[in-house]
Write a structure and sequence with these properties.
The protein has 484 residues and is α/β, with parallel strands linked by helices. It folds into three domains: 181 residues, Rossmann fold, CATH 3.40.50.720; 253 residues, N-(1-d-carboxylethyl)-l-norvaline Dehydrogenase, domain 2 (Orthogonal Bundle), CATH 1.10.1040; 37 residues, Single alpha-helices involved in coiled-coils or other helix-helix interfaces (Up-down Bundle). The structure holds 6-phosphogluconic acid. The site of 6-phosphogluconic acid (6PG) has 13 residues, from helix 8 and helix 12.
Length: 484
Amino acid sequence: MSEQAGTARATIGLTGLAVMGRNLARNIARHGHTIAVHNRTTAKMQDLLDEHGDEGDFVGTESLEEFVQAIEKPRVVLVMVKAGPGTDAVIDDLVPLLDEGDIVVDCGNAHYADTMRRTEQLQEHGLHFVGTGVSGGEEGALNGPSIMVGGTDQAYERLGPILESIAAQVDGEPCCAHVGEGGAGHFVKMVHNGIEYADMQLIAESYDLLRSIGGLEPAEIADVFGRWNEGELESFLIQMTADVLRHTDSGTGQPFVDVVKDAAEQKGTGRWTVQSALDLGVPITGIAEATFARSLSGHGEQRAAARKVFTTDPDEQRVDVDREAFVDDVQAALYASKVVAYAQGFDQIKAGAEEHGWDIDLGQVAKIWRDGCIIRARFLGRITEAYTDEPDLTTLLTTAFFADAVKEGVDAWRHVVATAAQGGVPVPAFGSSLSYFDGLRRERLPASLIQALRDNFGAHTYQRIDREGTFHTAWAGDLSESEA
Ligand code: 6PG
């Protein structure tokens, strides 16, 4: 049933009816909530009503004034516009029309710092601003996304039940939670996307290794991924990889993956994750390498120049491997590297929460990522268990389940990285994850030498292993040591 606005009878409103907004609105309506819908160009709103008006109770509105008036107070207004200045423009138009206590929910991929700024800005008007991460793409928005909600407890009380009803569900539990105050929702979504970058890079490296060193064809690799999806690696992206690799381009008859240009793009959330990690001092090496690998892939001119100079003699670079054993090794390396990427991502969420005073339950974050989102995976259940058992866990890597998996796979992991280096196949995510693991477990790191060098050229001082205090050596003088 659909009708035009009259009285304030909608329980929620949504403005911005591009694909994501439209699907989210349909999902909300299908779950029995009366929803007011609005779009800058009215035709899109009308299309939604014409095509899907029978899916639930929509209140179509043509102006922002009419839209706001159609929603019950305290109003909940979802904003689904492209992140950036567009969000500010919508907020500026909305604010004068709203009343104290109303709630504006930004469901775009906004930068968490913008969300923090907007939260303060709306607070001055007595309004709640709720930065909300929504993952799952178009399909998820329609059939059940994973939803990471920020903002105040008070706003969540009004908003939460609606969002929980439309989210993906696992064992009767919604993949939606109030992860923390202020910008926490968008921060968690940002790290989700960073992990998404690492996950995809690790998958892409696995494919490259299986094809370039293992000698498998794309359709055979599809079967391998299909098998992997039946075990601990089971996840949305692994299944999708099997589907993509099995696909043949209808125009050329080539494997589809061979007709796609090998330059990966990004909208920026991976870059933000790395920038934030640098500020927080958290080594998220897997995510960073994944982000840089995309960047390298886009440097076509440099790649062409390097290819010309450093020509490859295929015989010199050929590495002979036992195909079946190599497939198993790549599987183990993928799993271990994935554990590292997630461990690093959760470290970053923990550090972000400490920095900004957000009370984020890491086990709950893993829980709401179990379905609906792009990185949904079987092993997220294990991460929830790990943080439930020990909420202040130092690193996920050392919990029994993951430690056993890494111990079991470490030889294969080393073999894969060494073989890749020998064969000239770039594996930045595999390699950096292994180095991170070795860095953590090493008795002594060469950071001692770095400290000595810093003291030598800049009198930056150092600490000793055998005495408390801060010291400096007179490198240019008599080499005596003094306490700084
Ligand atoms: C999701 C996705 C979604 C989107 C990314 C793609 O969780 O639904 O992460 O947010 O697909 O923005 O990001 P890039 O364009 O940066 O790869």
